[in-house]
Amino acid sequence: MQLLSKVIALLKIYIADSLAYRASAFIWMLTDVVHCLVMPLVWLSAYGGREAIGGYNPGEMVTYYVMIAFTTNFIVSHLMWDLSMEIKEGVLSQWLLRPVPVVWMLFARNISWRAMRMVLFVPVALLALWYYSRFTTLSPLTLGWEFWLSVLLGHLVSFWVAYALACLAFWLQETQSVFSLYYAPMLLLSGWVAPIALMPGWLQALAVVFPFRYTTAVPVEIAIGKLQGEAMWLEIGLQAVWALIGAGAAQLLWRKGLRQYTGVGM
Amino acid sequence: MKRLGFYWRLYKAFLRASFVREMEFRANFWAKMLYNALWLGFFLATLKIIFRHTDSIAGWSESEALMLAATLYFIDALISTLFYFGLSELPTLVRQGTLDFVLFKPVDSQFWLSLRRINLDQLGSLAVAVLLGVYALFQLDYTPSLANLALYLGMVLTGVLIFYSFHFMMMTLSIWLVRVENLWVLSDVFAQIGRFPTDVFDRVLRRVFTYVLPVAFLATIPTQALLGKASAGFLWFAAAWALGFFVMGRVFWKFALRSYTSASS
Fold this sequence. Notes:
The complex is a heterodimer. Chain A has helices at about 1-20, 20-45, 60-75, 80-90, 90-95, 100-135, 145-165, 175-190, 200-210, 215-225, 230-260. Chain A is mostly helical.
């Protein structure tokens, strides 16, 4: 019970905090807006009268990109940028003294920011769907509880991966370039660039091995009806597995790292 | 004329300082090179994925789209080399009030802010962009005439001026948006739109991206010029646009400075 009230207090703080940065959030969101405007138009101009490309008809292609932009806002965490700085500059020391585990605080901060980004994106998504409905028949969206479960699991996978990555700051002086390198495979294999089904075989094989597919690609494929029934449950199960692996790895690195931590600035 | 000589000497000093600074962090230099190459590879992969499934997008073949990508990449790398680092410091200068020291200098503030730091780790990207363009032309089996090549280079210059002015205006917003730390993303978004031919847009958006937010001048129109698909008259239009955009950026900066309140003093 006490833990619950602490979590609620944390959420209150970080929701207020993320609202203070809404202008930044709006600017970041423009990247997603442009992505879900440009990519479907590029693909639409590639059909040339065909009914489907790689099993995607024009309507599915459009909704795919709108949904990937939408889910990315809630799912994909970038917490390593701030957290690594906080570790290196010794801000972490204050947190370790608080009566709440640091991981709860990080989780509350991440989910508050992501939730705000998702809410900001809702009108954009609706506008984009309206815009496209003028050229194509949109495919229906399946946004049942399975979809939301998958979104939540995706959020966890990305949270833990970013958290584990941030732990590198305990050992490395220069983490910025490592984090930058992380983005290229992440964007490619999470389905951000294009539906994974449209990629060459070797990339599809890579996608299965990395955790990224289990962040955004799975929920979006559920939403547009590409994943159903048993196949869907298998993928949701794999998301849960990745969330557990990520949690284990992050916790392990965190504990090891704390032993290294010298608390600069104390 | 004497003034011009003064600015030239100043620029040489900036160049020297940037070079010394870069050599101090040599490991970082190579890491950045690698990073730039990775992002280019990332975009080429995107193109490859699309052209696995089609021969053309909005009338552009794969090699033509590659030429366009090389052009955008070149302009982007040139902007990063010449202006990016210096301008990215502007929000911090505003937040800390240290912009005062820039304004006190007997140098034009836009000149100082834009050109002070030259980012040498982009030189590799510039070379790669040129190679990529040459490769695309080989693939196309196309030798541009001298006139088309000249037209192309002129257009690329206007593209650089437009992109710079846009970036400068976006960074100028930091005078008012003191707490916003990611204004540079706005320029990224601008380039993001230009990576594909603007022909993929419908008529209304295409007009917007030509006449209002001139993304088309970054890569689409220069590439068309190179491939002999744009008229020479367009160069004059592009030049007028670029000059207009530059003047707009300058006026905007002067206007913004009137609202600058100097945080610390």
